[in-house]
Each structure stands twice: as structure tokens, then as C-alpha cells.
Design goal:
Elements lengths: L10 H4 L8 H25 L3 H10 L4 H13 L7 H12 L3 H9 L10
Length: 118
Amino acid sequence: MKNYLKREDDFEKRRQHLAALSDEELNERFWELLEKTVDPMLDMARTHTTPSIERSVLLRMGFSSIEAKPLVQMAIDRELISKGVGHLVYKVSKEENIPVRQAGLEMLEGMHWDDLKF
């Protein structure tokens, strides 16, 4: 077995600022720090997407991969991918009062893109 350097135990030193906190205060502190860690990731998820994510959403909406790929590309070409391609299809479906699948297929034919308003 290799010789490893033994790590000095500094646990007591590092926990001094927490030692006086009750269990309830420690719990609150934990959740505060967790929110600080997770908030940037949530913000990024709300404002960023990728073609792969958008294709995945469309697949779950019932489109084939052969249909999803060009739909995503059409949204990219129109600089609308940030809106979410599944959202675009859903929005057309509601505005036109047609099924989601029909909306997506019509969008593949070039229809409805100019009618989308944000």
C-alpha cells in the first residue's frame, strides 16, 4: 500500500462558527446555503436550452425524431429556440384550436411561424 499523508483533523476549528447554533438554526442555515447553490442552476435552466433538450421535449409530446429534428432547426433558424419548441407547438395548437400533433406537422410545412407572437 502506498504511503499517504495523514490529513490533519481540523473539524473543530472549521465548525466554530456553527457550534453555537441549535439544530433548527443549522437546518435553516443548510437550506439557505442550498438555495444559494441551486438558484443559479434554476435561473440557467429557465433561460437556456439546447437543441437536444428541445428534441427530447418534442419526442415526449409524440413527435418522431425525424419530425423533431427539423422542427428544432426551424425554431433555431427563426431565433425562437429560447421560447422552447414544445411551447411553440403547444401555443400554435391552442391559438388554432387544433391538436398538438397537427400543429407540429403544419409547422413542419412552414405554417404558423409568422403568427407566433411573444
